[in-house]
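Quick one:
INPUT:
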């Protein structure tokens, strides 16, 4: 199948843009999935900028967690609720009266999706439907960003980065559910959010984010941290697989910039990729070796021969649209990201104030 033509050179090119703290000061924001790894980082960033933040999530997904260690709930209103419960979600959205909604609540794990496919589809597909229907019924929302994943594309294992207009797909239930979430978002945008006074709706695609405070299952950095703590060898399922690694603040900055842009113009309603620079997409084994060199103590690894469920071996994003039309640029390169992760976990081992540590990394790495 042929590739989608690239953007016309020079078309809509903007200079580097940034998240503007003044825009977010006092802004009412509803964030679903605020207790997760990415949600906790984004919650702290929004708090740092003075947003009036309400979070909606079904409990805390891991123990330990960044949400608890960094006392994320201290600077926001936190609601315990499940996006599969339409009525609870609609009530919470109406009470929060948000101007901006960022939807991050999800079942985010590929391997868990094989064990619990129904839960995965209910959360990732119907959760999106419930959120968008709640927005449609509430009124007053100016912008909605639905966060999906780089795995929403029909993966052909080719060497190019995927562009936003290429076909949705998904071999496993997780990827498929996120592709479905993208199709739901597109249908709602065309059917219910196309009038001038309607909320402006976009989706954001990124993946393989890394950073301090992640304890998710079957993720590379948490697996390395657990192996190091236990003094055992790290077992890698697919050491040669290429992934678009990036520090969590890079895509989060893209989501915030996209929300700003949606508030300013309906032209930004649509799908957007937020991926790392070309040379930061590299094999799993390379990331492990570079992180292990920074980690306190020794970390060795070996290939886990399996058997394992199917996972794509080659995956990259083309973020030309976000670079040209939003002026977005990733601010944290991979080596700096790996250093910051080791520093974060070293601070945790030293019993530092992890809220202060995480906020300091936001200030240093993202200018938050």
């Amino acid at each position: 199948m042929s590739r989608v033509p690239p953007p016309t050179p020079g078309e809509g090119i903007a200079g580097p843009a940034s998240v503007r703290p003044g825009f977010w000061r006092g802004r009412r924001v509803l964030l679903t999935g605020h207790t997760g790894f990415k949600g906790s980082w984004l919650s702290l960033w929004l708090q740092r900028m003075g947003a009036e933040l309400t979070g909606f999530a079904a409990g805390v997904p891991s123990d330990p967690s960044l949400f608890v260690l960094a006392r994320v709930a201290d600077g926001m209103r936190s609601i315990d609720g499940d996006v599969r419960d339409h009525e609870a979600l609609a009530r919470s959205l109406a009470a929060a009266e948000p101007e901006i909604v960022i939807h991050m609540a999800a079942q985010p794990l590929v391997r868990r999706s094989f064990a619990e496919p129904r839960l995965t589809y209910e959360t990732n597909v119907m959760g999106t439907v419930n959120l968008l229907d709640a927005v449609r019924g509430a009124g007053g929302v100016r912008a909605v960003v639905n966060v999906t994943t780089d795995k929403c594309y029909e993966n052909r294992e080719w060497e190019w980065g995927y562009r936003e207009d290429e076909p949705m797909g998904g071999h496993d239930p997780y990827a498929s559910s996120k592709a479905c979430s993208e199709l739901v978002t597109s249908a709602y945008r065309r059917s219910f959010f196309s009038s001038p006074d309607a909320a402006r709706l976009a989706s954001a695609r990124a993946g393989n984010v890394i950073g301090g405070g992640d304890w998710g299952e079957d993720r590379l950095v948490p697996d390395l941290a657990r192996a190091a703590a236990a003094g055992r060898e790290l077992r890698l399922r697919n050491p040669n697989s290429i992934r678009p690694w990036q520090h969590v603040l890079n895509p989060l900055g893209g989501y915030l910039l996209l929300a700003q842009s949606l508030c300013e113009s309906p032209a930004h309603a649509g799908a957007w990729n937020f991926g790392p620079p070309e040379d930061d997409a590299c094999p799993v084994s390379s990331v492990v070796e570079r992180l292990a060199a920074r980690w306190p103590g020794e970390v060795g690894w070996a290939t886990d021969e399996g058997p394992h469920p199917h996972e794509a071996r080659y995956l990259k994003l083309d973020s030309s649209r976000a670079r040209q039309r939003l002026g977005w640029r990733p601010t944290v390169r991979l080596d700096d990201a790996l250093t910051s992760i080791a520093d974060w976990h070293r601070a945790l081992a030293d019993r530092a104030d992890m809220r202060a540590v995480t906020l300091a990394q936001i200030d240093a790495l993202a200018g938050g």
